[in-house]
Design goal:
171 residues; 8-stranded antiparallel sheet; 1 helix
């Protein structure tokens, strides 16, 4: 559902998360997702568990923001990138408890060469209600294209397990 501010509200998303057997960690429910802009590939696509859809924007510094159901401890996320097996993306990650004041916790991160979900360690445990990924283009062009995002609870022993159901996953 979309409200008047362009925010996509996700009803019954908890049910969708329960149907994600490939996730090895605990994934938090997302209440809404917004983006600074898009090219018609809207922000809701990062939560549809379909690696053939995506959020895309060509502006350096364009961002996508996830609002979680409640404030929770987070120390890593999972993200998959469009044609990630052929290009690396430059990103930053910001967190917020109120959706107004964001703290940058990851900067200058360069993604791995894979189209599958990859873990991005935030470096510490943060109390998060809003999580924002900023895109700074990729090694081929200035496009930012994310196919999937998951926000995970801290995992035992500091591990960062993510979904293993991406396009490059072995059958």
């Amino acid at each position: 559902l979309e409200n008047t501010r362009g925010t996509v509200l996700l009803e019954n998303w908890s049910l969708a998360y329960q149907l994600r057997p490939a996730d090895r960690g605990t994934v938090y429910s997302v209440r809404a997702v917004t983006a600074s802009e898009d090219d018609g590939n809207g922000p809701e696509h990062v939560l549809d568990r379909d690696y053939s859809t995506r959020w895309s924007a060509e502006t350096l510094g364009a961002y996508i923001t996830l609002e979680l159901e409640q404030t929770v401890p987070v120390n890593y996320i999972g993200a998959a990138f469009y044609q990630g097996n052929a290009r690396q993306y430059a990103i930053g990650v910001q967190v917020s408890a109120d959706g107004v004041h964001f703290t940058e916790v990851v900067s200058g991160y360069q993604t791995q060469l894979t189209s599958d979900m990859q873990a991005i360690d935030l470096g510490s445990v943060y109390q998060v209600k809003y999580l924002r990924i900023l895109g700074y283009g990729n090694t081929i062009n200035s496009w930012n294209s994310i196919t999937e995002i998951s926000v995970y609870a801290p995992y035992e022993g500091g591990e960062t397990p993510v979904a293993e159901d991406g396009p490059e996953a072995s059958s």
